[in-house]
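Hey all, sorry for the wall of text incoming. These are the two entities for the joint prediction.
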Amino acid sequence: MCLAGCTSDSGNETASQSAPPETTTPPSAGTGTSNGGATATCEPFVITSETVATTPGARTRTRIGIGEEVDLATDPVTTVTWTIVSDNGQKGTLSTASGSTSQYTACDRAKSVTIKAESACGRTDTQTFTVVEPSDGRFTAETDVSAITPPTIKVGFQAAPGIMPNDVSFYNCDLREGVCAAITSGVFLRTPPPNHADTGQWLPLTSTVGPDGTEFSGHDTVTGTRLLSQFPQNGTTDGLFHWPIPWRLQVRGGGTNGGLVFDTVDHELTYTASTRLMKMQKANRSAQLTVPQPTVP
Amino acid sequence: MTYYADLTREIAMICLSMSLGNAEGFVQDVEISKLSKTEYIAVLAASAVRIGGCANYDPASAFAAASRVTERALATYDPASGDQTLDLMGLMTKYMRYPDSSFQQDHAAQLEVFEVWIDTWAKAEAHIDPSWSPSDSFPPFEHPDVIDGQGADDIQNADLKSAYETHLANKQTFLTRHRNQSLLRRALDQHGDAFVRYAEDLGKLPELSDRLKALADRVNAPMLVAALTK
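and here's what came out:
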């Protein structure tokens, strides 16, 4: 029986639950095949795995991000029963429990998860995956958007958020910034200090994994805009505006990790009176400008 | 705790503490009125995967049950939704098969299923906005009395507050479109190979070639058109 589709050309089986149905030679009767030519003889086999994500690194990696999907197969092609060892409902899912292939979708918390394949005659093999949670939030290489347009000065940059570590993919996850209170002082003092608002919705990550981790496709524009008149000639007052913003991640669709807060990303606008330097920093990226001395009328 | 979150936790237990009959009953008893349509499709998708991947159930019966849940999703989903399309295409490429061993030899049935696949693909393509770019960004609100990213409630000046609220509303619209367009494209990228393989396999049957070529008129993706017209 090959319900989900298989191809079997010259014995080079590429059965897959996601592949089209066999339209060539049906499995021979009496061989015990039950998955488009997959053998049920008692030959030893091994599990092979390939991440759905084409980056980062080799697709045979077994260190994977939460929610990542991995295609599993047996070599040589063998009909097996697929199970998650000690499944408690919190270790991810398999797309199918029977056949020569399956797909594992990782759970939404860090864990070591072992997948077991067992053939009808009792041969077994296992594959263990290390499921990794996000560690910290970053930004990709920034584009400086700072500008002085009297009566205001704007300091900041544009860049895409990235999620570390960069040796796994979080393409199947959503990102969100949370609520936090501001800390303000000096020339940036605000009373009351404004809270950072929630993003309002979950933002999908992409399959691009660069040096700064799995990237969000859109760009965040991080700027601070102030009146030039806030910075008097020979002023001695520094300034600080700081939001410690919680970054949250969930496997797309929700999952059960409650929107894991994995990092606090510092959004910080500072002013140093002695150098008249205004600097905007968020995570690992920053932009700065020297505030010009006021024009004497 | 929301109803959706409760369901998510129960789905995780499908293979462990529910018989296959109970699992299908669980899916049938989901109260659709308490969920958004996207949540409902996500529940169906997660349930089908949990059922189809459960070694405690008879494989053929589990696969058939997962197929039925997939058909339920197919009858309910909104093709304009990127989330729902991505979930549904994932299910289709895994479970959208007749739970019948004769399916392999029933080429008409195979083609009928593939026509459903193509219909879903065509609907997804129709909802892709060519004017959208993944690198689009929403400009920040630039005003010396407002820190872009703050809530509107802290702004005292009524006119400024109103302008900022409009900015925030427009930003939500932007982000909603961004998500939807991102996921529609991802659905086609992620499942395109399965569509091509299906088309190429059916293309080996000379009697189907004319009907496959007719399907090619409905889609735009070059690799799929090539597979259908080979």
